[in-house]
Write a structure and sequence with these properties.
Blueprint lengths: L1 H24 L5 H13 L6 H26 L1 H10 L3 H15 L3 H4 L10 H7 L4 H25 L1 H14 L1 H26 L6 E2 L1 H9 L5 E4 L3 H6 L8 E2 L9 H4 L5 E4 L6 H12 L5 E4 L2 H12 L15 E2 L3
Parallel strand pairs: 1-5, 2-3, 2-4, 4-5
Antiparallel strand pairs: 3-6
């Protein structure tokens, strides 16, 4: 415990800057415990440079999130798709990110800091959506300040308990490190198992890109549903001809026109086709049996489309009033 107190007392701002910057860049670094501990130690009489810690945290937040913001502006949705694929919550990362930004706009940069798996994705999405540098900097600074002061205050309120915890950790030393590492490994394995199980969706019928293109070319005209979020469809010009955009929450209210006997093909642009699988289950639960998920989603379609250069006729669309039809 004395080593940690001494480190935070003498090098607190530098430590907080490094761990905060690393966390905002996406590294699995626990920045929050350092802030909470710093808040507790500040109240406990330790000669801690609290102002320096606040400034260090702000700079780390702005630099880390700013890097992803600029990446989103440069490379668009591809950056978010990559980050979500690497996330421990890859199955929900895309949908949660779209929901937060669609609902809160610039304020999402503040809210996302408290949502695991989304905090790194919000800045590049803001950049891809064309948020101005000044607006981003204003929201990012406000969010970083709220986040920093909040955890420092939490540490100050529970400073006595924090010092007790640090004392216990100091006493058990290596054993605490081993137990903590084992728990982290168990958590990672559990998340990996969940993701593997999600891929084995035995109740889902899939369709390949080649089969869908053949069906469209032969005029069998399945209805194609784009399950990407509205914000993503706005910034990503790629589209499957005739596809109609839906939010997952809209599907239960759009079953009438979809129940016309045509086969339904749903797709997304997310890890493991997670959003498309969720939509297919909603449709099947409502009694629509002819539902398939496009294997590989939009990325697979575009890869094959670019490979052969063919143009596929668009099928008769689902009524536009039920969704946002992408431009072919």
């Amino acid at each position: 415990m004395n080593d940690l107190i001494s480190l935070l007392a003498t090098q607190g701002p530098a430590v907080v800057f490094v761990v905060t910057l690393a966390a905002r860049l996406g590294a699995p670094v626990p920045a929050v415990p350092f802030l909470v501990a710093a808040g507790g130690l500040a109240v406990g009489g330790t000669a801690l440079n609290a102002v320096g810690i606040v400034i260090a945290s702000l700079v780390g937040n702005v630099l880390g999130d700013g890097a992803w913001f600029l990446a989103g502006r440069r490379w668009g949705y591809a950056v978010m798709r990559l980050l979500c694929r690497l996330s421990l919550s890859a199955d929900t990362c895309v949908s949660r990110s779209e929901s937060i930004l669609g609902r809160w706009g610039g304020l999402s940069l503040i809210a996302a800091k408290y949502v695991p798996g989304v905090s790194v994705v919000a800045p590049p999405m803001a950049g891809a959506l064309g948020m101005s540098n000044a607006r981003f900097l204003a929201y990012e600074t406000a969010g970083a300040l709220v986040w920093t002061l909040g955890y420092l205050l939490l540490g100050a309120i529970f400073h006595a308990a924090i010092r007790d915890v640090l004392a216990v950790l100091a006493d058990i030393g290596l054993a605490a490190t081993v137990v903590g590492g084992a728990l982290m490994l168990a958590f990672l394995l559990w998340r990996y198992y969940q993701r593997r199980m999600a891929r084995h969706a035995d109740d889902i019928v899939t369709i390949t890109v080649d089969a869908l293109r053949t069906a469209l070319a032969q005029g069998r005209a399945p209805a194609v549903l784009d399950m990407r979020g509205e914000q993503v469809r706005a910034i990503d010009p790629r589209v499957i001809p005739g596809a109609v955009g839906f939010a997952l929450r809209e599907l239960p209210h759009a079953l009438g026109p979809l129940a016309d006997g045509r086969e339904l093909v749903v797709f997304c642009d997310c890890p493991d086709d997670a959003s498309a699988i969720a939509a297919a289950r909603v449709l099947m639960a409502a009694g629509l049996p002819r539902v398939r998920v496009l294997e590989g989603g939009l990325a697979a379609w575009m890869a094959m489309d670019a490979g052969d250069g063919k143009v596929v006729e668009a099928p008769p669309p689902v009524p536009a009033s039920l969704g946002t039809t992408g431009a072919a």
